Amino acid sequence: MLQLWFFSKNQDSYDRSHEKLLCRSEKVIYRLFKQLSHKPLDRSPDVPRRAVTVQPPRSNIKFEGIVGHSTPLLEVLDQVKLVATTNVTVLILGESGTGKEKIAYNVHLLSSRKSKPFITINCAAMPADLIESELFGHEKGAFTGANERRIGKLEAANGGTVFLDEIGELPLESQVKLLRFLQEKHFERIGSSKTINVDIRIIAATNRNLEKEVGEGRFRLDLFYRLNVYPVTLPPLRERGEDILILAKHFIEKTATALGRKIIPEFSARVLRQLSEYQWPGNIRELEHLMERTLIKTQGQIIDSVELPTATSGKSFSSTEADASKTLQQVETEHILSVLKRCNGRVNGTGGAAEILGMPPSTLNSKMKKLGIKRTSSYGN
Ligand SMILES: Nc1ncnc2c1ncn2[C@@H]1O[C@H](COP(=O)(O)OP(=O)(O)OP(=O)(O)O)[C@@H](O)[C@H]1O
Predict the structure, then answer these.
(1) Ligand 1: residue whose CA is nearest its atom 15
(2) ipTM of this predicted structure
(3) Residue 223 phi, psi dihedral angles, 5° rounding
(4) Of 11, 249, 338, 354, which is least packed with CB atoms within 10 Å of its CB?
């Protein structure tokens, strides 16, 4: 940010002589930034003339479906802008629901591959024995049940981008096969000896700490190096400040439009405070689902209550100080247990714990495993 200040003994003299200087300086800066960014600056008449604040534009690029303008988000978008036009493998890291898939899609859209396919492979949703067929395809009769030829996703994405979501969940035996493809850039369909060459860009994402996974023998170091060429870490929602309320409003408006509601309700001051202070363990997905539920339940013009999970919302706000002594793992465990209790232990489906927490059931299951939470129907009842 560049600020220019002009001082003058009296108002008239300022207005007449410095105005000229100001305009000239402004023009020079304006031309400079225009050259740098190819984007015109906002020269709205509302900007006070005496202190001219010229904000260098962070980006003149449009990001598809990305709402928010907090500094942590803008920093991520700057990185996305830099890497998108290259062919480099991107590893997107961040908690569940922070928008990793959205960012991956934007990398694709900003690349020269944008008119070619963008194909997502959810590594957590696939059993180990199916992954090879999913990735590479198979010939008819290659194994029992292979009744016809199937084109794998890597082949279908030729020319475009493959997004390997939840890569940290990929079974070890599948990691070897993926690594081989990443090194050689070609493969054979199962049951065929014909080599298929493809030109694809790989983007991978995970909510796991892959270095820790490598250390504990669950993720191959060589595959980690292959994927970790350009890491981009998404901030959790609780660290995105003003974006929480911007996103909340966005989701209320989006849901209202989808439901054909004419009145878009406003948040009460209390709700604004609750939304800002809540920790959002399920990040944007949790906020999105909460806003959908809230709008459905709101008939008037004011949203004066939101049903945040009891572990935090039921307490007075000052009690959050007591929680500061707990580790994130303890808070996460307690929060998941309290949601599971509310759902009678049900993880999947509408109103299940995964939906409430704003994450896919597979992610919740692996989180529970990691935190040592057993599946039962009577949590604390
Ligand atoms: N910046 C954003 N603006 C608006 N909506 C967003 C933004 N980021 C994410 N979302 C929405 O939040 C939800 C979760 O996003 P996404 O699936 O990309 O997260 P994720 O990090 O890939 O989650 P997971 O790790 O569970 O796969 C989606 O509905 C997505 O549309």
Answers:
(1) 99
(2) 0.98
(3) -70, -40
(4) 11
